[in-house]
Amino acid sequence: MSAETVLEPPVESRAAAYAAWVRELRSGKPVPKLESDAIDPLSVLARELELLAEQIARREREVERLFDLVHRLEEGVLLDDVLDRIFERFGEVIPYHRIGCAFVTPDGTHLSAFWARSLLGPMRISAGYAQPLAGSSLAAVLASGEPRIINDLEAHLAENPHSDATRRIVEEGGRSSLTCPLIVGRRPIGVLFFTSRDRGAYHDLHRTTFRQIAAQVSLVIEKSRLYEEMLDHNRRLQEERHRLSEAAAHDPLTGALNRGAIMGAVEQVVRAAAATRQPFGLVMVDIDHFKRVNDEHGHAAGDAVLIEFTRRMASALREGDLVGRYGGEEFLLLLRPLAADALGTTMERLRATVAERPFDLRGEPWRVTASFGAIVGPVGGTTAADLVARADQALYVAKRSGRDRVEIAAPAG
After folding, report:
1. Own/partner long-range contacts of 83-87 (Cβ < 8 Å, ≥24 apart)
2. In this structure, how many other beta carbons lie within 10 angstroms of the beta carbon of residue 20?
3. pTM beyond 0.85, yes or no
4. What CDD domains would the database entry show (predicted)?
5. How confident is the prediction along the chain (413 residues), in pLDDT tens digits per residue?
6. Nearest to 372 by CA among 386, 343, 351
7. Exposed site from 179, 286, 347, 393, fewest CB < 10 Å?
8. Residue from 132, 98, 133 nearest 116 by CA
9. From residue 2, how far is each of 5, 6, 37 by CA, in Å?
10. CB–CB of 207/94 below 8 Å?
11. Angle of helix 340-355 versus helix 299-316 axis, rounded to 10
12. CA distance readout (Å), 140 to 108, 113, 125, 153
């Protein structure tokens, strides 16, 4: 043996070194490169161990990337935002040109399209498109919980010519698909459809990739959907509460504010005007000879007069002015803001709005007039009830003076 000959370490020590190296690898610690130029079986083993370490590191990076994607999904709150994030980021791990999301209907009978984004042609499947689940291949996908690959959608359509959804996706330009079930617990909630314009785009690796994050993705989507359902439920409750509040504040026959609501509005204006001194008008109106309408034409005709009278008043008032039914055929108008010198002109315009053309009582024209009593506020130290009483006194004067006229209460002096 020459002096230059390099002696290999004994087999036992090399094996011990490799074992220690593997233990370090299993513990997750960084391991050094195994150096060996020999071609004996132990050196081959060293090379295989190196390749194993590289594969493990690569898989760790892939898992980190997958869970980073899921974490970014969790940053979304609304469902559309979560699904948009999937479309914008999942291209790193799964190829696609289109993603669609569909949910199982509450009765479990159909799969209904909810959302889609596409880089293919014009979409042929939009929100609300539904397919029955019974006996379908999608039902089998949901039951198995396993992603399904179809790498030639045109061939699949030829074999299943009655598949309307496949036909629509092919018309959009899809040529292969990865159908991924969304399962929360053991309950299927829907499906994510990944579609590529390329044939043969999907492999077992993509199926495995989705399996690794399927539970988390399903949960994030379901949480976002439940959150949106809660928001929608709260919105409907608010709308119903508003509707009930509106109904409680309005006269059911005429739609005008009822007595309580119009008096509440007057009280608010009186309180505000005490500080701002902004003028407003308060008007009591009574339909003249209303009893004759009921006596000669019946109460249905009287109701029709009340409704038309309210309509004419509302059409003649400005935005922000209010009309309320004070009682029977008597109405209270709140005009804000309104200066004293404009009150007379406004009252005459309102009077003419009633009297200028007859009312239609079942095809018979009937001349209707009204009397108006008004006052301009604010009046220092006067309550809303006091102002209404003074407007009512002015109305009484207008009635006694011949009706179909306007009477304005004199300023307090």
Report:
1. 83/115, 83/117, 83/221, 84/117, 86/192, 86/217, 87/117
2. 11
3. no
4. GGDEF
5. 444 444 456 767 767 777 777 777 666 667 676 666 556 566 656 666 666 666 666 565 665 665 666 666 666 557 788 788 888 888 878 899 999 999 999 899 999 999 999 999 899 998 889 999 998 999 999 999 999 999 999 999 999 999 999 999 999 999 999 999 999 888 998 999 999 999 999 998 888 878 877 777 787 788 778 777 887 888 888 888 888 888 889 999 999 999 999 999 999 999 988 888 888 999 999 999 999 999 988 999 999 999 999 999 999 998 889 999 999 999 999 998 877 788 889 999 999 999 999 998 888 899 999 999 999 988 877 899 999 999 999 999 999 999 999 999 876 54
6. 351
7. 393
8. 98
9. 6, 9, 19
10. no
11. 140
12. 14, 18, 21, 18
Angle among Cα 113, 118, 124 to the nearest 5 degrees reads: 50
Which residue has 């999608």 as its token pair? 138
Q: Do 165 and 159 contact (CB within 8 A), yes or no?
A: no
User: How many residues appear in the chain?
Assistant: 413
**Structure tokens of 384?**
């809303």
Which one-letter amino acid corresponds to residue 305?
V
Ramachandran sector of residue 212 (left: φ over 0; alpha: ψ -120 to 50; beta: rest): alpha
User: Per the omega criterion (within 30 degrees of 0), is the bond before 95 cis?
Assistant: no
Output the six-digit token pair for 246. Answer: 């509106």
Name beta bridge partners: 349: none
Rounded to whole angstroms, the Cα distance separating 197 from 85 reads 21
- Residue 373 near residue 394, CB atoms below 8 Å: yes
Contacts of 81 (CB under 8 A, 6+ apart): 224
